[in-house]
Design brief:
Elements: H1 2-14, E1 18-22, H2 28-35, H3 45-55, E2 67-73, E3 76-82, E4 90-92, H4 96-99, E5 104-106, H5 115-123, H6 137-142, E6 151-154, E7 185-192, E8 195-203, E9 208-213, H7 215-222, E10 226-227
Parallel strand pairs: 1-10, 5-6
Antiparallel strand pairs: 1-2, 2-3, 3-4, 6-7, 7-8, 8-9
C-alpha cells in the first residue's frame, strides 16, 4: 500500500513538468543557449527585459562556475542549485506574485469540524481527495500557468504545527535558517494534487509573512534526475 502511494505521489509530482539540467562548468553563453530553447525566452532583448520582471532569475547572469543545476518549467525558470563549493543550496523563484492569484480553499467556522480530519491526512502524508478547483476565469487568465491548477488551503480555525509540514525546529528551510526560536506559524497551504508545494508562514516576532516553497518541494527538486 505504501509503495502504491509513492508511485501515485511521484506521478503527481512529475505532472509539474519541471526539468533539471546539469550546467556545472558551462559558460554563460551555453546556459543562454539552453534557456533560449524554451518559449518564454525571446530573441528580442527588449521583450526579455520585460519578462525578467516576472522571472526574477536572469539567465544571462548565470554561470556554470557557480551553479550545478538549473530547474526549468515550460514557462518559467523555477530556480537553480549552487555548485559543491557554494554549499549545493537551492535558490528558487520568489513565488508571492505567482500564488496570489490562485484561489484558496477555506474552511469557515461552521465547517471547522471538517478541518481536523483533513489536517490529520496531511500530517499522516495520506492522499487527499479534493472536490474543488479554481474556476475563476480572471485567475486563469493572469495566474502563471504553473500555478493555475494549484489548490490552496487557508488554515483559519485549526492550528497546524510547522513540524507537521516539514518545518521542524531548528528550521532547515532556506528562508528560515536565521530564525533561532520555534515561533513560526502556518497559515496557508498550497497543493498540486495531494502534494504540498508551498505554504504561507507567519513569524510573530518579526511580524512578517512569507510565501515559500515547501520542504517537500525542495526535496522533489533535489531528487530530480538531471538532463545533460
Amino acid at each position: 500500500m505504501v509503495f502504491a502511494v509513492e508511485i501515485i505521489k511521484n506521478y503527481i509530482m512529475n505532472k509539474l513538468n519541471i526539468k533539471a539540467f546539469r550546467v556545472e562548468g558551462k559558460s554563460k553563453e551555453a546556459i543562454i543557449n539552453l534557456v533560449s530553447q524554451f518559449p518564454f525566452y525571446a530573441a528580442d532583448k527588449e521583450v526579455n527585459c520585460n519578462k525578467r520582471k516576472r522571472w526574477v532569475i536572469n539567465p544571462e547572469q548565470l554561470s556554470g562556475e557557480h551553479i550545478s543545476k538549473l530547474f526549468i518549467h515550460d514557462e518559467m525558470i523555477v530556480g537553480f542549485e549552487f555548485s559543491d563549493s557554494f554549499g549545493k543550496d537551492l535558490q528558487l523563484h520568489f513565488i508571492t506574485r505567482e500564488l496570489q492569484l490562485v484561489e484558496v480553499y477555506e474552511f469557515p467556522l461552521l465547517a471547522s469540524h471538517k478541518t481536523i480530519p483533513f489536517m490529520k491526512k496531511i500530517i499522516n502524508k495520506e492522499p487527499l481527495q479534493f472536490h474543488w478547483k479554481n474556476t475563476i476565469q480572471l485567475h486563469h487568465k493572469f495566474a502563471h500557468p504553473f500555478f493555475r491548477n494549484v489548490l490552496g488551503f487557508r488554515n483559519t480555525d485549526f492550528l497546524i504545527r510547522p513540524e507537521d509540514v516539514g518545518l521542524t525546529f531548528p528550521y532547515q528551510h532556506p528562508e528560515f535558517l536565521k530564525v533561532k526560536e520555534p515561533v513560526l506559524l502556518i497559515e496557508n497551504l498550497y497543493f498540486k494534487g495531494s502534494d504540498l508545494i508551498a505554504y504561507k508562514v507567519f513569524n510573530p516576532i518579526a511580524y512578517e509573512y512569507k510565501m515559500v516553497w515547501s520542504m517537500a518541494f525542495y526535496e522533489y527538486l533535489k531528487n530530480l534526475k538531471t538532463i545533460h
